[in-house]
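Example protein
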Amino acid sequence: MKIVLARLCDIAMTLLGAVIAARLCFGETVPHPLLHCLFAAMVAAMVAVVFPGFSIYLSWRGRPLHPLLLRLIAAWVSVQTMASALVLLLGGMHMLSGRWLLAWTILTVALLLATRIFVYSLLRRYRHAGHDLRHVSIIGYGRYFDRVSRDTKGNAASGFRIVDIVELGAVGAEADQSTIDRDLAALKRVHDSIEANAIREVWLALPATAQASLQRCVDALRDTLIDLRLLPDVEALGVEEHGRALAYIGRPAISLSPVALPREGITGKEVFDRVFAALALLALSPLMLGIAVCVKCSSPGPVFFRQRRKGLNGRPFSIYKFRSMRIHAPEQGVVRQATRDDPRITRVGRFLRRTSLDELPQFINVLRGEMSVVGPRPHAIEHDELYRKQISGYMDRYRVKPGITGWAQVNGHRGETERVEKMVARVEHDLYYLRHWSFALDLRIVFTTILRGFVGTQAY
């Protein structure tokens, strides 16, 4: 929502700049008013499309203001240049006022910068008062670790609050086993306190020689959904002038957590999800009504089956399916996967599961914003707790919304996972989807699912 508001604000400032410039340059009468209006509308549309490509809408938390302002200026000048070049090629440049274009460019730069500076200052004051702070745990060793901790403590306006500081002891090659054990115990305390302290990020402020400690930290926190960041001591390495992946509280930072979908792609994907889900529910409503009647007649019980699953960032939600099994009392804390010739499955349910028609109610989840049309399939929470310990990167699947269909499913990885190797293959395909996501890949998965994805021998 914040990104949508920021984009709407940029479009509004663009159009406001055009109106003020026209008033200053032309007064009451604008020559060729239709052309000037169309040009302003085209530029506003280009702002909506081009600005995200300049990383204009990245989070400001912990980042200095001036690089953001420079990117904003570069983006606006690029938009005006491209729009003017397009009009020039179409032969309409002679009808546009050069004085108006120049005034508009300058005024809009001023408006865009002013709004950014105002909001940035407002956010810093708000966070300095203790609001909207992201909880952080810092793990490290040595003088650099002390400096990072001190800088963060004294800079609440950056948007971070330290809730835990852990100083390691076993950072050298000569560390004894008792020191290593103490470090492992400290890391376990951090791991166990993540939910209780609402920790969103863990920063590793370690010297360059502490590879073993770094690996222990990564291994200890791999099965969580926190953002794990390495803050390297680049001054000690003599590379402080080199490019930086991130900059937090004035320190270079390298993200060690897999990157979820690019911010500029999330909005488009969510719009597609809602529109596609609404159209699908409308088009499939007669079929779904017929299925509901068949389910109700096949055995006593409700039409829909609801189960708690994990969604984006591990937040639980209730997933909807057409009920395909007879009502039975499940074992406490145990979720039995459906097996071939499972006696719990009704005759109608067997057909629904074979054709995946039991998944159709999940378009309701998509419409509610809990799922996506395409994404990693959500598993039972009990299975999550089992596999997160066994499969590296398993929890990274929840850095995006779960999907009705996914890359793993269209590649044949669906149904029962009676062996851990089957789940490993499914997770590998899900992680491939995260690393290679594009809107084109989503469309490919949707069309593949429609053409051949609804019938599979693995589903029963």
